[in-house]
Amino acid sequence: MTPPTATPLARAADLALEASIVGSYTNIGFRARSELAHWPPPVDTDLRGHTFLVTGASRGIGHETAAMLLAAGAAVRSVSQSAERADEATRRLQARHPDGDVAFAVANLTVADDLARVAAELQRELTHLDGIAHCAGAFYSDLTRTADGIEAGVALGVVAPHRLNRLLADHLATAPEPRVAIVASSGAYMHRLSIDALDPVDDSRYRPLAAYALTKRAQIVLTHAWALRRRAIAFDAMAPGWSDTELLRQGLPRFRQLLRPALRSAFQGADTLAWLLARPEPRRTTDRFWHDRRPRLEHRFPWTLGGDGPDELWAWCEQHTPAG
Q1: Does pTM top 0.90 for this prediction?
Q2: What is the maximal distance between C-alpha atoms in the chain?
Q3: Which region, left, alpha or beta, applies to residue 266 given φ > 0 means left and ψ of -120 to 50 means alpha?
Q4: Which of 18, 37, 80, 237 is disulfide-compatible with 10, CB 3.0–4.6 A?
Q5: How far is Cα 295 from Cα 286, in angstroms, rounded to an integer?
Q6: Residue 189 belongs to a domain with what CATH number?
Q7: What are phi and psi of 275, to 5 degrees?
Q8: What does the pLDDT look like over 205-248, one tens digit per residue?
Q9: Is residue 100 part of a domain?
Q10: Is residue 195 within 8 Å of residue 308, measured between CB atoms?
Q11: What is the DSSP string of 244-282?
């Protein structure tokens, strides 16, 4: 994918913002980059006839991504654990796009049987699937495990995307330009990938911020693992920036209070995700970590280097994925 055309001033500003970290991830960076580089809308093409699965579309970044795709004529499918939230999200999306084709399945993304049912329903309904946006995420202040014993944040952010990719990869491969993108975050910069740490054993040593950062690092590595194995599908990870979402309100209330005027909106956070899914170029750069429509460094600090890699993470995810 060709990055947006930028003047020398826009490029210099982009690099300065990236070096500052705070400037890059707040709404300051979004406004400066988009205005100086004259970004077109994130979805600047006709997507009629396309269908995307957007997890986490009941609110936040996933909801805004779904709205952008619907505005371009795409059909959107999503999953919510709550029928009430699914109905509410559907009403809100249809109010914004009355002619939009949007539907939610009620399922728990951390339950393998639920995922298998959702995938089977999509395969029966659709001739092909053009893309998946993995937006679902949560913050757990205490060590929480799913019914099959996986730490809940990893189950939702890493294992569920792996399982969905596995179930739907063949259906994706029938699309002309299939794309899969996952919402990671700058939190990945704080943690190296450790397969052992994905399965914490001591409740008293559980650190929620470290667990969240580990999940985000694993999401980037998972992108590499899939890109190595299904080259016909474009896989990417992206950082939405520091967006004022429910996850931030729950997980980092003090951080939110301190930076609230500079936080991004959910729309700004969703911009690069929708852009990745909708870009028309069939031959493009992929398997990158994106932020504000450009690939970025995956590591900023030396202590995150040298962790476990894509093959180790793939093997771990396969161990936690039912056969079939």
Answers
A1: yes
A2: 53
A3: alpha
A4: 37
A5: 9
A6: 3.40.50.720
A7: -60, -40
A8: 899 999 999 999 999 999 999 999 999 999 999 999 999 887 77
A9: yes
A10: yes
A11: --HHHHHH-HHHHHHHGGGPBPHHHHHHHHHHHHH---S
